[in-house]
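WARN no homologs supplied; continuing
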Amino acid sequence: MIHDSRLWNLYIAPDTDCVEVMAYCPIEDHSLVVSSIPVDPDATDTVGAFEEAVYDNPLLLNDFNRVTIVSRSGLFAIMPTELTLNRDLVADIVDEMTGVCGKALIIDELPLLDASVCHLIDTELYNFITRTFNGARFIHRLSGFTRYCHGTHRGAGSLTSHVNLRRGSLDIVLYQSDRLLLANTYEWIEPADALYYIMATRSAMDIDRKAPVVLSGDREVRDSLTPLLREYLPTVMPAIFPAAMFRAGGATAMNAPTDLIVLPLCE
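OK structure emitted
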């Protein structure tokens, strides 16, 4: 399916039970390829499981135009970009906030919002990726989603709640103009838990109930959460799927994970 990988961009998201992969050629419509490679969720050597998934799929080892690794780690902190000029201080802060030390530190800048997502990646995994994928770039899932939301809706002017839904967790992004108010991930068990986090974050920021909630991500979760939200808020709507990525992959694109499909639009 990929004749000349040097024209293609590759996106890889290691997760607990799979490695999700997306590849597409920016100059070729309907080129998008998306795949989920299963890994053993109970494996004690998670880095070894990722390595095995890569080596079992030699396409991933081709020479791509660009390789982006999407981190879904819960070990992150958001801070003003000015603070990140002191990398040692950032490392100390993130270690203190997450309770984890000795990991590789990645800093994703959100330049239009004057903030950065500082996240930790297993050092062994980081070393394997940098050895295996030439020039690989790292980005946190929350960074890509925040960039996309702000870049495509910054002119709207209202305090819209942007929510990316998954089974068991959700991301919420709130901003006002070029000021980031909130970007965080929350775990949930029942849809009522997701409802609570959305309403609680709006309450904490004193957001008017007329301000919209825009839902993206898992369709089944969205369908179960939407009627609950509409009991309390007048404007709850699905996110408009980006036309550029629909041209890239049609139905394949619409079923791709949100944190992967938005990345080409905010790089």
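The mean pLDDT is 93.
OK
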